[in-house]
């Protein structure tokens, strides 16, 4: 129940960040709705397609698709507010990430998948919406460069499963995961924690180009 | 029957526009066939994957894949003709859009999907082929900027379903939808009807980038 | 058995080329693992999704995903070696291509698909990993420009199926296909064999842009 409410808050916030990205590419209303929806529910869609988990959530519950389309269109009116109060979106996005992670993990667990696949499902749910947004808008995907993001989804899902494994009741496990994951993500932003970055000079490019055509 | 003929005309025309896009990127024959096929049958493929509707149409009927590959290769010979008589392609593309929309709508209806999902299926079928083409060829997707396109697919599917709902016979419903949708699309091109565009200055970019990493 | 070993060699080599591409984009460790895995097992994933062949190979056998993630991370340590001994990767990549092609072909054959779909399955398995890598890293896909690559996968799959059709035992068919396909790919690189390229001047662009919006 709490998860459902937080899920709706999460997809709304994600849809709005998607709409802003569409606006920077001067897209029309259809493009705005498309990018908003891909950002908000694309991660869960990719997860379900990979797992063969049909019907997709937004096809069984089209109201979620309506919410993301409307949130996208609403953003075209209130963009200045969204940009101005972007700190609220940082918070909503962090909350959404943990909620997506828990929900993605549960889908895979309910299918009886092994632990590693449950972790992958959590990360895909949390991260691939933003990836799709950046692919459609032709930006280098932010999640592959910036502060801990996929890692937070990974850790949150691991924490959630570990608690269930050790007999913690579901509600408490969800609560602990939400609070811990949320604080971890905010700390990662605040202190600019990031994974090590792998850099290759383009000058090293030449010999490699022949290697893999 | 008529729909099948129009479908073949539609995928042939779409495959040719895909091949032209591949030619502008100096792709080889394999690339030409890939982009041609993605443009022509990619929309239906994405729709079927989202709906979990297997087998995919072109896997059950590989002749459609052969047609798009051959149409793509043929375009490498007759490109000057295609460019010269591009107005014919505007017309074929408009026809194809409505045919794709009706067929996509019918697939979802046969699965017993709710109305909103049938509309989404119609739009995905009509629009995602061009989206895939532009992603592979690394162009900003045209359908997200230009005259009414997705909207025409949406309206055509709505008109088709409304007629069936009110007891109009299938053949008449198809005919009315084809003519109306086709004229609507041509009118949109002629009079440059478009959806409102959402523009954000890149200067508004900075604060937002932090919000969603 | 031999195929399984070669498959593991193949995905390891592909994961390393994917990691190098990620390094040129200055991605973090998560990005490196994502691109490495997409390059190595993305082709089989796309094939299985198109065929509706569930569960996906790496979900049923998560150890393959672990291998590609670890190979990707390892590349961040030994990148200079990988770049220096790139000729070894040319060879491993050529081997991987034929192995992927045979395995992709077999999946479709086991599903009872017609010959043309088996050929498509082989090409998709061999080629789409590299395509996904180049899409995520925003490069124009190399496989659509360079020496025979998809064509080699196509020919290898055709040769394999032809042998089975004429009663050659499976092991011999695999051996003959591996050797022939491998030499064909190396010859294509050595002598720069390529498919004809389709070029259109951008000046021919203007009239066409109206044709397909």
Automatic annotation (TrEMBL), chains A, B, C:
Organism: Photobacterium arenosum
Main localization, broad class: membrane
Transmembrane feature ranges: 64-83, 90-109, 115-136, 148-166, 172-193
Assigned protein family: Belongs to the UPF0126 family.
This protein's name: Trimeric intracellular cation channel family protein
One Pfam family in the UniProt entry: Gly_transporter
Domain Glycine transporter: 5-78, 91-162
Membrane-topology descriptor: Multi-pass membrane protein
Record flagged with keyword Cell membrane: yes
Keywords recorded for this protein, A-Z: Cell membrane, Membrane, Transmembrane, Transmembrane helix
Cell compartment(s), UniProt: Cell membrane
Top-level taxonomic group: Bacteria
């Amino acid at each position: 129940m709490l998860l459902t409410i937080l899920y709706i808050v999460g997809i709304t916030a994600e849809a709005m960040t998607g709409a802003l990205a569409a606006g920077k590419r001067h897209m029309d209303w259809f493009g705005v709705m498309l990018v908003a929806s891909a950002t908000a529910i694309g991660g869960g869609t990719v997860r379900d397609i990979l797992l063969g988990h049909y019907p997709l959530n937004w096809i069984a519950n089209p109201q979620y698709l309506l919410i993301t389309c409307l949130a996208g269109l609403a953003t075209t009116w209130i963009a200045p507010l969204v940009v101005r109060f972007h700190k609220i979106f940082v918070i909503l996005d962090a909350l959404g990430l943990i909620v997506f992670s828990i929900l993605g993990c549960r889908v895979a667990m309910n299918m009886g998948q092994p632990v590693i696949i449950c972790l992958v499902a959590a990360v895909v749910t949390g991260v691939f919406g933003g990836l799709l947004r950046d692919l459609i808008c032709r930006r280098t995907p932010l999640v592959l460069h910036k502060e801990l993001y996929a890692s937070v989804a990974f850790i949150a899902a691991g924490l959630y499963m570990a608690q269930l494994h050790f007999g913690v009741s579901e509600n408490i496990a969800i609560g602990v995961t939400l609070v811990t994951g949320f604080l971890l993500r905010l700390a990662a932003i605040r202190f600019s924690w990031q994974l090590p970055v792998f850099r290759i000079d383009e000058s090293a490019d030449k010999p490699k180009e022949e290697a893999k055509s």
